[in-house]
């Protein structure tokens, strides 16, 4: 099951398959596509898993083991890669909330997002090599962009699994949060991204002509929200 929660501009997509440690099946892919359809227009998008054991444990091997031909394997890979590409191309900030371990395809799902927030006790790893396969959902390329070529090759080539602190140290995770306050802290960060101008900031950071960047700033400058915030700052300064 994939749940979609809409909360005042914030869309939260939760993979809820406790019997499979939130692994992704073909049906999960169907539901993810529908959830992303429903999230269109959100000012920020969160991706997470149910419970506190697994964010996403990868592909659902019990189901995907039925794929025995190269055509079937490539079709599955293209489909899930397109979902991750859609997340990567989402127009407003996307946040992977690592409530539990993110392994194999789960790590690929996590790096499709702009930002990764992790509970302090999770582990993350591109460990597909333990099954004698490789990342196929775009995660290898995104891992290079995050940590650099040599570290990415070492991680994916050996299947190393990192704890949250080490993942943060190398730039694979952006922020590590205490387990006791995890739910409240990730939601506060996500809501902040959903209520401010982060969508425009993301668009400019992705690369637009100078004229568009300046025009985006000017639109924000003349907006009522800017003047209300500026008025509060000026009053505090008196």
Automatic annotation (TrEMBL):
Transmembrane segments: none annotated. GO terms for biological process: fatty acid beta-oxidation. GO terms for molecular function: enoyl-CoA hydratase activity. It catalyses: a 4-saturated-(3S)-3-hydroxyacyl-CoA = a (3E)-enoyl-CoA + H2O; a (3S)-3-hydroxyacyl-CoA = a (2E)-enoyl-CoA + H2O. SUPFAM superfamilies: ClpP/crotonase. This is Enoyl-CoA hydratase/carnithine racemase. Keywords: Fatty acid metabolism, Lipid metabolism. Coiled coil: none annotated. PROSITE patterns: ENOYL_COA_HYDRATASE. Belongs to the enoyl-CoA hydratase/isomerase family. Could possibly oxidize fatty acids using specific components.
